[in-house]
Amino acid sequence: MKWSWNIGSFRGILLKVHTTFLLIIFWVIYNHLSKGDNIISTLIGVAFVLALFACVVMHEFGHALTARRYGIKTRDITLLPIGGIARLEKMPEDPRQELWVALAGPAVNVAIAFLIYSLLKITSQPLYFEEYDIITGSFLMKLMVLNIVLVVFNMLPAFPMDGGRVLRALLALRINYVRATDIAARIGQGMAILFALIGIFYNPFLVIIALFVWLGAAQESVMVRMKT
Ligand code: ZN
């Protein structure tokens, strides 16, 4: 991808960060300073974003390292403001393999959330799950909640999310791959319409997600048709 820098590699997979990622860091710094926060809490804010994106990177490595077990290489993993992208050379054609590759990413976030939960339990810190935790909760508490959010969001049964692939793989175990993709894409587009409707009334951000899901579903359908 253009405008991205190499920041390291792990097990032979290159890790890159896109220049636009810096915008998020600047935005966090600006947000803290404009509220009159001191340097320490601003730095903690930046550290939180970096910790969250480290979880995203581990999620992508979950996909990449599982794919490698099936002999599929990953070109690189790029960090963007919207999340991470692992560029696999191809997706496994065996639905069982696709299922494991797709599940491996969210499984990493489940493991991280569980680890943090155990840590909070052992150190007997209060655990409370109210809505405002995401703003006022401790560093680890917020990181745990966001890992759970990542799992839920990624497991939505719609392309281009991991849940869309899980659904297609499960269908493809029983029926033909193209038909499985079509059904999964249609379910994804149904969800996109639902998101858009809810978004119009409650949260405009959902409309953007809806558009993204709609395009993802359409693209997956076309790609599979080209392949067969
Ligand atoms: Zn994923």
Walk me through the structure:
The chain is an alpha+beta fold and 228 residues long. The chain folds into two domains: 1-155, no CATH class; 156-228, no CATH class. The chain is 67% helix and 11% strand. The chain contains eight helices and four strands. It has helices at 21-34, 39-69, 95-122, 133-136, 139-154, 162-172, 177-201, 204-227; strands at residues 4-10, 13-18, 74-80, 83-88. The chain has a four-stranded mixed sheet with strand order 1-2-3-4, covered by helices on one side. β1 (4-10) and β2 (13-18) form a beta hairpin. α1 (21-34) runs antiparallel to α2 (39-69). The protein is globular. Residues 59, 63, 105, 154, 162 line the site of zinc ion. Zinc ion binds at residues 59, 63, 105, 154, 162.
Helix content: 55-70%
* Rough outline: globular
The parts where pLDDT drops under 50 for at least 5 residues are: none
Estimated radius of gyration: 19 Å
Mean pLDDT: 85
Describe the main β-sheet briefly. 4 strands, mixed
The largest sheet has its strands arranged as: 1-2-3-4
What is the count of structural domains? 2
Which molecules are bound besides the chains? Answer: zinc ion
Structural class: alpha+beta
**Helical region count?**
8
Percentage of residues in strands: 5-15%
Secondary structure: number of strands: 4
Termini separation (Å)?
A: 27 Å
The H/E string reads EEHHEEHHHHHH
